[in-house]
Amino acid sequence: MTVLPTNLAMEAGLVATPRLAVVVPARNRRESLPRTLASVLCTARTDIELVVIDDGSTDSTESYLASLDDVRLQWRRIPVAAGANEARNQGAALSSAPLIAFLDSDDAFRPGRVDRLITFFDENPDVACTIDGFSDISDRGERIHRLPRLTPDSETLRQLLLCHCIPLTNSTVTVRRAAFDAVGGYDPDLRRHQDRELLLRLARQHRIAFGTATDVLKYRSANSISRTHAGYIKGLDDFVGRCPDYRSSGYGSILSYLTVRGALKAAMQGHFSIVLAELQAWRKADNLPGGFHVLPGYFRGRRKRHQLEQALDQLPATTSAE
User: Fold this and answer.
1) Mean pLDDT value across residues 78-99
2) Could you give all domains of the chain from N- to C-terminal order, each with its CATH number?
3) pTM of the full predicted structure?
């Protein structure tokens, strides 16, 4: 590294005791990484730490990180790619701040987000985690995803997460270190729905608050996992297998909806080879519904999900992460 580790920089008086850590997993993101890191380091605060984990990049990500000179930055390289979740966990472990905000390596924070997060958690010591809205930016333009105005109780929140009613991205998740450690961090073997699965585990024991801000910029690059339909069924099958709630009554139609919609999206965009691959993956799935009842279940599930979304603003409030 060309920068001091945070503890040595603190001893030298170059930075204050960190209040918040921003953890960035990166693999072959040399082009987008400068924008991502600048969106954090542009603040004048010295009580933050930015931790980047280079997850086995084969481009010039490592040399770029080595060229940076900011005492608030730490970085580490994993020689062989271990996946974004393992990189996030390693980044969290390398940091020391009591708050951890996650930021994907092709996304960015808007000015003021770091200050807002620190202030909110100071004022709400009973909240363990916040989820915020975001601006989704792609070649089709910008689309703003806002969270419901009110935060529901924990059981309702779990239902909304299981039914995929809440817009999510890892870059909007901020969590207290104690809560993150208590649930074991991110599942390193899960390639999709990582944020949703983490939040479901957190919601069992800790308070989660919705934020009304949209101060995260989500850039949909060509190689974003969230933008490709390939592997959707395998990712959903793995996610469902980790969530025993789906085996209770009431989620059959929702599972039918979630299963079918991935193949439908690929078909609507003309990716027929992906559709065939997804159908084959569906046949091998261990945790997803099959049979002739799936199609009518898809329509029932879509209707149920729409009804849940419509009812969100009428839910009883807890704390809102302003």
Assistant:
1) 96
2) 6-219 (3.90.550.10), 229-312 (no CATH)
3) 0.88
